[in-house]
Amino acid sequence: MQLYNKLSAKERAALIDEAGEDRLTLSFYQYAKIGNPHLFRNHLFIAWDEMAVLGRIYVAHEGINAQLSVPAQNFETFKNFLDGIYFLENVRLNIAIEQDAKSFLKLKVKVRDKIVADGLNDETFDVTNKGVHVDAATFNDLIESDDVVLVDMRNHYESEIGHFKNAVTPDVDTFRDSLDLIEEDLRDHKEDKKLVMYCTGGIRCEKASAYYKHKGFKHVYQLEGGIIEYARQVEQLKLENKFKGKNFVFDHRRGERISEDIISNCHQCGKPCDTHVNCENEACHLLFIQCEECAEAMNHTCSDECKEIIALPYEVQKELRKGIPNSNKIFKKGRSEKLKFKRSL
Ligand SMILES: [Zn+2]
Ligand SMILES: [Zn+2]
């Protein structure tokens, strides 16, 4: 029985091209008590592999968090499969607005300690005591009121390319950092202000809202289904769109355009741009914003140093990487001294 991927990303891309099939990019999550995550993981992998589902899925004792690409023709089968699992029956599926058949090229189902790396000790507070969920229309009204603090619960590189107008966008690398920062900033307003929060698909707010209530905030609201669901409702119900720019997404597309505004700049030349790329130098792989001109001039790298390295024969590059720890830990996402125009707050 096959429990893991056999095809490389390249082979998969070629297969998708050949098949010419329509695929849907979607995501969902659910907090639920899962007794044996490994068994559940295998169950999912076998079923989804059969349906040619691709994506990145985390399974933990606390639930499931899934980002997927499903062949359109298998969608019914996929949906029926979910409905057959008691805690996933009618789970809200966030369907991406911009479709890309190659949003995911592998099926990876991983067992983790948690479905979101939130750094929280769940034993210390009641995770089920969540904030009030609001839909797009209610959210639009709510954020206009004077006693509201609107907080973006995502990381700096996400809010950089798109966020709600008037939102506080913490300059943080992790969810945990932003929880502390916001609490510190709002410590004197736990009772008189309404704390309204949002994230990509809603999952981070599920924990954050419960955490803030535990910390004494009296009025906590969260955008139901996050930016993804907001954009869908805005389009479907012809509501005013108060989100500017792109919604950063964690698949091959990296960003989904929600409004035509370009609110960020190329990190190398400073001109308006909101296209995230990874530095072509495998030893660097820095995530940053780069315009097409700079991409060409820099040969898709983040710096002169990386440009020189990728000009070397591959074997020499590999030799150079030996003994150097994973650079993702050195250069944080979108942060490098070499980027002249990175955002500063
Ligand atoms: Zn540029
Ligand atoms: Zn680089």
From TrEMBL:
Q: Which SMART domains match?
A: RHOD
Please tell me whether the keyword Hydrolase is annotated for this protein: no
> What Pfam family does this protein match (any one)?
UPF0176_N
Record's keyword annotation contains DNA damage: no
User: What GO terms are given for molecular function?
Assistant: oxidoreductase activity, acting on paired donors, with incorporation or reduction of molecular oxygen
Domain Rhodanese intervals = 144-239
* Highest rank taxon of the organism: Bacteria
Which reaction is this enzyme known to catalyze? uridine(34) in tRNA + AH2 + O2 = 5-hydroxyuridine(34) in tRNA + A + H2O
Q: What is its EC number?
A: 1.14.-.-
Question: Which family is it part of?
Answer: Belongs to the TrhO family.
Q: Tell me which PANTHER family the record gives.
A: TRNA URIDINE(34) HYDROXYLASE, UPF0176 PROTEIN YCEA
NCBIfam families linked: PRK00142.1-1
- UniProt name for this protein: tRNA uridine(34) hydroxylase
Please tell me the species this chain comes from: Leeuwenhoekiella marinoflava
Report which gene this protein is encoded by: trhO
